[in-house]
UniProtKB/TrEMBL annotation:
Domain of life: Bacteria
Domain Methyltransferase, residue spans: 59-150
Keyword field contains tRNA-binding: no
Protein name per the record: Class I SAM-dependent methyltransferase
Keywords: Methyltransferase, Transferase
UniProt-listed GO biological process terms: methylation
Amino acid sequence: MNKPLHSPFREIVAYVPGVVRSSLYKGYFARFYAEYTSLIDSDIQWYRKAIGRKQKLRVLDLFSGTGRIAEGLAEDGHECTAVEVSPDMTAGKNTSGARVRRILGDVFDFPGSAEYDSVVTGQMSVAMFLNDSERFHLFHHIWSHLKQGGRLVFDMPLPPEADSEDVIGLPLLSGERGYVLSGVFRDVENAVQTTYFLAEVDAADAPTSRILASHQLALLNEATIRVELESAGFYVEQFEISNPAPLQPGLSAPVAQISAVKRSVDSFPAS
């Protein structure tokens, strides 16, 4: 987290003792994330509908996290491979189960093979690539995994009409004492959303733990997404806008749900 923090997280880090920085996808927050997302299934239902059930497909789930999307698709009979770099996100998951083949490693270390019918990248993973050259590299890598005519299915946050700053409290799960303070800051001019999670966990036999995680997402409009996909060898076949009900008020934002088809190209630009 190199950029200045937003308030009140800036003041908390400056004046409250013992705040430890962490990744949202490691350690405490990996478990917190997994438990909260287990309460949501609207995105999984959309992925299942987008992939379909008419025939058994080979599906690659990149940035798979806990594997919740791959598991949903496997229930429909698809042959799923899930790739995730964080061991904490996959803790307790069977890496050799019949339903989902799980691979622990970097998405970009998983070589393209042009053998998959569909690639999914859920949980707004594409938006974590903040500039166009990074997203081109990602889209081209995905293109290399797909059969001709194969489909990329993913979601992206859309920019709001105006800047917004929402800070709310979330309860801890699993009987823990304390709270999580969540802040979502949307910057329309710079097309970026910054999200914070600060956990304060009390234990009867240990000092209070304070853990801060954050991440940023790109906020792209429909025209930009279409142009970037076209440059990377795709055409958009479906672009839907969803307004999912948030787990807590203040976190709602429009989300684009996108299906793009691999097309044949003679060559790609460098980036």
